[in-house]
Structure of NADPH:quinone reductase:
Amino acid sequence: MKAIVCTEFAPLDKLQYTEVADPVATGDQVVIQIEAAGVNYPDGLLVQGLYQLRPEHPFVPGMEAVGVIESVGPDVKTLKPGDRVATITTLGGYAEKVLADEARVFPIGPDMDAADTCALLVAYGTSHHALKQRAQLKAGETLVVLGAAGATGVAAIQIGKIMGARVIAVCSTEAKRALALEAGADEAVGYDALKDDIKRLTGGKGADVVFDVVGGAAFDACSRAMARNGRLLIIGFASGEIPKFPVNLSLVKEYSVVGVFWGNFTRYEPKTYAENMAELIGWYAAGKIKPVIEGRYPLSDAAQVLTRVLGRGATGKLVLLP
């Protein structure tokens, strides 16, 4: 089969589109013929050796995929060949086929769009966990979403509105701000005067919850614009700068800085993770959430697509099609 292979931690243009051996299902594993593979920001960090996980080489990146089960191992109990499914994997998604553990495979309906489903897995899964379990967002609170035009940002806007929050989207361009408003945000602002804008839009109170995938100067601004009992969620550092936090701000203003590592959540709390996914799929079926899909690209274009994602040029979700 064809796959994208990382042979060394190196710049994105060193990724290879090449032939590799087909996976074989053993134990409780299944082999999935992939329809679409989602592209995520951590994928680009991973292949450059800049992520928490550092797998042995060579490896195939990609953590989410949608497709049809081709074969199953002898210990699989709930799935069979021909089932249409989605999966979260540590590696292997950027390929024509992927091997997945039965416990990390979710049956999906025949009419669910493959790209939409990819978005529900990591982007919506991360945002849902962040707002529901980590922030415990309440109706009537103000949620500030950084990077609001990206896949996780759009997800946070839509989920925040379902949970009853007032949502302030933060985006770098007018076009991205327009997309965030279309996704359901109540207000959309830029980064230049972020602290002042948050204070202005909250009547001086500050943000109850900040969803931060950006870090850097944007984190610094938000750390000075938090409401009492607020929750500043640390999700990622798309700016490329991991900020330093002056802890006296948390003391004086009485707010919490909360880490969000969705991958750990899925491993340590599988039951809650499954409940979250069921809720997301239900919301999707009911038309309450709708991913923004920017583009569907050939698998061979993985390096260029990752470059776009890491450069913060993408809006919504991007997927690869084998």
